[in-house]
TrEMBL record:
UniProt keyword Protease, yes or no: yes
Ranges for region Disordered: 101-132
Organism: Eulacestoma nigropectus
Record flagged with keyword Protease: yes
First and last residue of the signal peptide: none
Keyword tags: Aminopeptidase, Hydrolase, Protease
Gene Ontology annotations for the cellular component aspect, listed alphabetically: nucleolus
UniProt name for this protein: AMPO Aminopeptidase
Name of encoding gene: Aopep
Polar residues compositional bias, start-end: 111-129
A Pfam family: Peptidase_M1
InterPro entries noted in UniProt: Aminopeptidase_N-like_N (IPR045357), Aminopeptidase_N-like_N_sf (IPR042097), AOPep (IPR033577), ARM-type_fold (IPR016024), M1_LTA-4_hydro/amino_C_sf (IPR038502), Peptidase_M1_dom (IPR014782), Peptidase_M4/M1_CTD_sf (IPR027268)
Length: 755
């Protein structure tokens, strides 16, 4: 490694050397064991040589069909030789295990390998290889590094993709080289041709990935696990181009692993799900975590028949019975995404069905072909996508007209009625509002799951699936609708368009916070004045939250672009760190949401909302399926609205005022509290005055009972009620009777979670 990263520090290390080898596809084959609280199985990774090391290796040479047949015969008659080493004298700091042992020895070492540091994982293995040979090789052999944490790695092997029937089509039988092609090079050539198949052959590609993942192993590889990584090598292989491009890893998770949580749902049934851990998915499967490692995946998950498996796949999986009491669920994606977006939830979920389809059908009929006039300009214009090739919905004319994508809702049995009352009704309205604002839905379907009560957020978006907290269900439709809009917005910003550097999370959260207001206003079909009033009220609440957070947090955590000019830079190997990614207090901070929101709000007010939203749609069309930095968005926006250049608004000034500094942004301070003129805010101010005066009267005449007809309080919207309560909390003292009266007047126990 180029640098030794201290796992006890606040930065999250991304160890994978993606510049040398880049994963293109994962095939997971897993069993979920609720009794042992582990997920166990295998993962096959298919690679291409990375950008830092692309050379014409022997794998790229052409061979004829006769040579292919010859090598197949060689493989059948000659078993692969695995060099064996004596590791009993290895240093405890770094040990390599080749697992070339008898069945008993392998069984004995598997449990030892569950030790997180692998200090004793290979004890007892006898070998004819001397340790010094390994060390000599270690100076030259290529080392594949994957992100990995809290996993018990049992075995790593090369996959013999050349054994798959019909795979001959992925070799190049054009001309004789006069040299017998080695099996290793042939296998790498097959993987290279397979991952390079064009997008219109994605189904065929997926089928061959399946067959290749089931091919036999052809040689076990040396590996070592560290705190944050899995390191793999093959003796004598010195370059990424010659390293096996298809490897299989047998592993199991640990009950204490931080990528998934084992718990019970609200009905008391066991479940497990990915809850958005700061370490992402590296404790669920070995992977390449850097965002640049965009990959597709497919997964088969087996579990007891009582359970439903939901994943971030693009298909709505139907379970298949393997044996009595055991079902298998199969999901896949054809759009390359970072490994961090992989999501799974296994539980006794129930699908919430719509009892009356009239309202939903009417919504879908009315919105199916509704397009804003500003969007019709480029509706049928065939844009050339800038992303890597995949079956893109932006190139599909039917998908471009789909205002409401297919959706399902899942929940524990005890919450089904609550979901049917509001959530099921809101989804088509919010999807349609998002489509009207941004255009084509990047993903083809949507599942919404009400996750267990230990979920620490209100919501989390992944491709094709949204997790919502049970807290959004009570108290009417307001919180449920706004949170749903926020998570739907992530389909465009955060998923279809991702940050190239994870420290710029404002690109995801700032946009989703800004767009949730736009989506929710359109979903409610409010008038212009109503929209303006609600958005000003929301801006005031966010201003108060930002002010409080800035006053009570470390300055270094308030910067939206903490790496400044070095944002997006990687080491030569591709490894990097997410600055402050493990800092405990950062998990609870909203500065990236709030400052990002106020930046986008400021730009919209400066440019004009109509022009601004039109620019957003153009940005989505240009950059979907890609990773971006802040300057990509800001540069395109300012170029799209050239009149702003004369006003002194530049990318550099935005960096200086908004992204690279702590505290309240200077332009926001200069803007003034415009929301004070908002009628909804003034109404709250009047109610606050009434409550303060009532509180004072009660304190002065505590023996007298206050007559209920003395003061008439107005009914307030949920956001108004939040502002009222926040304002009253700033008073030094409130009488118990006032608190009781507040409860009775506004029925606080029946309000939403924000209240």
């Amino acid at each position: 490694m180029e640098t030794q990263l201290d796992p006890m520090k606040d930065d999250l290390p991304l160890m994978a050397n993606t510049s040398y080898m880049l994963v293109k596809h994962y095939v997971l084959d897993l069993d979920v064991d609720f009794k042992g609280k582990v997920i166990e199985g295998s993962i096959v990774l298919f690679f291409e040589t990375g950008s830092q090391y692309r050379k014409t290796s022997s794998a790229g040479k052409e061979c004829c069909q006769s040579q292919f047949d010859e090598t197949r015969e060689m493989r059948a008659s000659e078993p692969c030789h695995i060099p064996m080493i004596n590791v009993s004298t290895c240093s405890s700091k770094t040990e390599y295990n080749d697992f070339a042992v008898s069945g008993k020895e392998q069984e004995a070492t598997s449990d030892e390998n569950s030790n997180h540091s692998n200090n004793e994982q290979a004890s007892g293995i006898s070998s004819s290889k001397d340790l010094s040979d390994v060390e000599n090789h270690g100076n030259k052999d290529f080392l594949l590094i994957l992100d990995c944490c809290d996993l018990s790695v049992l075995k790593v092997e090369e996959v013999d993709v050349a054994a798959v029937s019909g795979i001959e089509k992925f070799t190049r039988p054009a001309k004789l080289t006069g040299v017998s092609q080695e099996l290793e090079n042939l296998r790498n050539q097959i993987v290279h041709e397979l991952v390079a198949l064009p997008a219109d052959r994605w189904k065929e590609q997926l089928s061959y990935f399946t067959h290749c993942s089931q091919a036999p192993g052809c040689g076990e590889l040396l590996f070592s696990t560290g705190t944050w990584s899995l390191e793999i090598r093959k003796l004598g292989i010195r370059t990424p181009a010659d390293f096996p491009h298809a490897i299989r890893i047998f592993y199991k998770t640990k009950p204490e692993g931080r990528s998934v949580t084992w718990t019970t749902d609200q009905s008391g049934r066991p479940c497990v799900y990915t809850m958005g851990s700061p370490i992402n998915n590296r404790a669920l499967f070995p992977c390449q975590e850097p965002p640049i490692a965009l990959s597709t995946w497919q997964a088969s998950v087996r579990t007891a028949a009582d359970f439903v498996v939901l994943m971030s796949g693009e298909n709505s999986a139907e379970p298949v019975q393997l044996q009595e009491g055991i079902l298998t669920w199969y999901y896949y994606v054809s759009m390359p995404m970072p490994a961090s977006t992989f999501t799974i939830a296994v539980g006794c979920w129930q699908e919430v069905k719509q009892q009356s389809f009239k309202q939903t059908a009417a919504i879908e009929t009315n919105t199916e072909f509704s397009l804003p006039s500003s969007q019709t300009d480029f509706r049928w214009h065939e844009e050339i996508c800038g992303h890597v090739e995949y079956p893109c919905r932006f190139q599909n004319s039917a998908a471009r007209l789909q205002a409401v994508i297919p959706y399902r809702v899942f929940a524990p049995w005890c919450l089904m009625e609550s979901c049917e009352e509001y959530l099921l009704q809101l989804i088509p309205r919010c999807l349609s509002a998002a489509y009207t604002t941004l255009g084509t839905h990047p993903f083809s379907r949507l599942d919404v799951l009400i996750v267990p009560s230990n979920f620490s957020s209100l919501g989390m978006a992944s491709p094709h699936i949204i997790f919502l907290s049970q807290s959004v269900l009570p108290g009417g439709s307001h919180l449920c609708g706004t949170r749903l809009c926020h998570e739907i917005a992530h389909a465009w910003f955060g998923l279809a368009i991702g940050a190239r550097d994870w420290t710029e999370e404002w690109i995801s959260e700032g946009f989703a916070t800004f767009l949730e207001d736009i989506f929710w206003a359109r979903a409610q079909q409010l008038s212009h004045d109503e929209i303006e009033g609600q958005q000003e009220l929301k801006a005031l609440l966010r201003w108060r939250r930002l002010r409080d957070e800035v006053q009570n947090s470390e300055e270094e955590l308030q910067v939206l672009r903490p790496k400044k000019e070095s944002t997006g830079e990687l080491s030569e190997s591709g490894a990097s760190v997410v600055k402050y990614g493990l800092k405990a207090e950062k998990i609870f901070m909203q500065v990236h949401y709030l400052k990002g929101y106020f930046l986008l709000r400021s730009l919209a007010r400066t440019i004009g909302e109509v022009s601004y939203l039109a620019s957003l749609r153009k940005f989505v069309v240009k950059f979907h399926g890609q990773l971006i930095l802040s300057q990509d968005f800001l540069s395109m926006l300012l170029e799209d609205v050239p009149k702003q250049k004369g006003s002194g608004l530049t990318v550099e000034s935005i960096f200086q005022n908004w992204l690279d500094t702590s505290g309240i942004p200077k332009p926001l301070l200069e803007e003034g509290e415009t929301w004070k003129e908002c009628q909804l805010v003034q109404q709250v101010s009047g109610e606050v005055t009434k409550w303060i005066q009532t509180n004072q009267r009660i304190r002065k005449s505590s023996k007298k009972k206050m007559r209920q007809d003395e003061v008439v309080f107005q009914q307030l919207l949920p956001d108004q009620l939040v502002l009222l309560l926040e304002s009253l909390l700033e008073e030094k003292t409130l009488c118990p009777r006032i608190l009781q009266c507040l409860e009775r007047t506004y029925q606080l126990r029946e309000q939403d979670a924000e209240v």
